[in-house]
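Dear support,

I submitted the protein below through the web form. The confirmation email said the job was done, but the results page showed an empty box. After a refresh the structure appeared. I'm attaching both so you can tell me whether what I see now is the final result or a partial one.
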Amino acid sequence: MNWNCVSVPLNLSENLKNLFPFELDDFQKQAIAALNAGQSVVVCAPTGSGKTLIGEYVIHRALSRGGRVFYTTPLKALSNQKLRDFRHQFGVEKVGLLTGDLSLNRDAQILVMTTEIFRNMLYGTEIGAVGTSLDGVEAVVLDECHYMNDRQRGTVWEESVIYCPPEIQLVALSATVANSQQLTDWICQVHGPTQLIYSDFRPVPLQFHFCTTKGLVPLLDGKREKINPKLKPRGRSGSIRRQEPSLPFVLSQLWERDMLPAIYFIFSRRGCDRAVEAIGDLTLVNPQEARELKQRVEEFLSRNPESNRTHQLRPLLRGVASHHAGLLPTWKSLVEELFQAGLIKVVFATETLAAGINMPARTTLISSLSKRTDEGHRLLTASEFLQMSGRAGRRGMDAQGYVVTLQTRFEGAKEAAILATKGADPLVSQFTPTYGMVLNLLQTHPLEVAKELVESSFGQYLASQRAKPELADIEALKTQLKLLKSQVGEIDEALYKGYQKLRERLKVEQRLLKILEEQADETQRAIAALALQSAKPGNLLSLKGRHVNTKHPILSLWISEIPGAGKSPNLICLSQDNRWYVVTSADVVAVHEEKIPFNPQWDLFIPSAMMLKPGESRKGDEQTASIAAQIVAQTKPVIAPEVYAQQQLIAALEAQLSTHPLNQFGLPSTLLKRQNRVQELEKEIRRQEQELQKDLGCNWQEFLKLIDILVEMECLLPTYREEDDGEDNFAYEVTLVGESAAAIRGDNELWLGLALNSGFLDDLDPHHLAAACAALVTEVSRPDTWTKYQLSPEVERVLGLLQQNCRRNLFKVQRQHGVAVPVWLERDLVALVEQWALGVQWSELYAHTSLDEGDIVRILRRTLDFLSQIPHVPHLSESLRDNARRAMVLIDRFPVNEMIN
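What the results page shows now:
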């Protein structure tokens, strides 16, 4: 469907002052007005500017009229945080949570969930229809919508927009991106009327600083457009670039300027932990804050005694902490809570902290402007820099936010100024067809509808925008083609083909004539060489060769001879056009039988000025003209019979061309030229359209590859539909195994479905099943990771059977179709899961591996998430379902279980 974006007047029907006892910003009012006019909105504004208020308004509006709102976030941690916030704001009974492995009050009016859960809900409903799971839903808030850029999760946002029923309003909340209008136009196109609400206003302005060994200096000039002139390098000295300020010095600068609390971004876990150690015994809290810190930490440890880590606790009580994915989630939550309360003054964090967790600070410090990624070392992108910078400045608490970048060995003020003044990056599409997408769409939709949905992606929209110049080129070629066809007129194609065939035949015969002439010439020269031995002056010769450059042989009279360079003499001849030539015997191509009575006096007529060397030529005079006239009268040119016959054939072909019916429409050569150009244009248009279709149809081609694999793996059954034509003449029936795979969430739903349906897992004990399931969903470990535990023989046997009977074949089929989807089967680390399921204490488990605690929790939670799906997957054995439930109970204990309150 196509919708046009419409603007609405600012006419608010709600008494906003009753809901929000403060003056709203203009962009907030505009968004509320658009929502009240029945439109969806894309709200694009800086971090911390108050975008969440618009989602809260939608909730207030729904509650007032008995409706429901889904509030989606990209991360479980964010969903948990929103649950706590909304329970406090709207009441516990009105708020629910869905995060895959947690389901709390799922029929509540306000349902918080991960965006992936919302997408999965839509899978179970015919696209465009409101299923039972969406009953009463007025609006869906897509928080942190700029996550569309995320390579792993981005496709979920696009699918959610495409599949969402048009009568449900979408509220997309995004940080500033370069192409927010394109995002809005796309949502208009695939969902319904949508208005862009854009604001670059920050309620708490940012000030950028640069820290060197000499102290803090403003990074930008007075207009905040260029680098501060004081920071420009002078002369040849590069020593300043190599001097990095120490951590205690940087913190002292912040302390002196009252710029705490601060988030100090460091792009490695170890770097964060080392920074905490480097501070030593420095205390950043006053006595009253220290007492409150101690009280709240003791309360936390009384509830979670296993979370006590001395090396983390001591700096925490002094107002310093680290925050990264390697820490226990409960400890990270404590750090977040204490930081928000102002009791922690410096948090050393990886950039994951900038991904949406509500932890604003007065200052953010960015330790380096480059980071190591899977693709190598690279500079930060503008969006990454803005995301971290946006955490500075607490609304209602700070008049000014501060962003500090540091001098390092590799980057300086120049790079910092470029990032600070650069605009945000554009959103790109990460839409990627998956096995789950294919199976779920084909369960409820015919192939042609699935194609329409796949080609509704944001990536497809962006590709069509980029393709506009190519489309314009194709249209220009089509216009040119139409004009040429009008000039050519309605001429039977057979006439062109017949005339062209004759022309090509003529060219072939002309090439053959040339060959025959050359062969005849060689034969004639050989005969002439023999005849010349007995010839003498007075003989008629035909000349053509190196020293007589002519197309046709020149008939000449041999007048005299002079010594040559070799054994043969050079000949002096007079041609029939009264011209003297000095030639060699090699220039004689024929010796004629006819002779002219020779007069020895003719030697006297040879021009005295002519040099007597081969190649010389002079015009004759009146005396020689009478001799030349006799030459013409005496002989005829010699033509080989085969040459003559070929000439006659060519003449006949030329006659046919001159009388061909095509002549009645105009000059054939012109007509043919235009017709050839018509064919060239048609060919070029086809080529460009195919190239364009290849670019625009890459997602659909990937979708078709996955279909082929699913057919080969017996998850889809193709059935021919006689009434249809073209590529979509097959319907696909999802098999029982396919239905199982469709019900699973994972990196490779096909692999997980095949494993669960293999029968190899059915009779495993719960702790063995937990380890086997962990192997299926855990990424392959790094070479430097280890665990001292060994897998039990029962699990080893099952993993071996899965490798031999399922995984190997799936790898093979994926390679054949050019598809690269991971097929995890981790063996090294999943022994941790087995031991945890057997009841090993956390401290012992952690002591038996090189993994950080947060990584262990992540493996266990991912395993728990997969186990929680198994009871709901159709067509599995009851023993497998029961053991999955029992395994969940074994695993779901502190610190793995989600702590909501």
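Response: this is the final, complete result; the empty box was a page-load delay. Residues 493-534 form the longest helix (42 residues).
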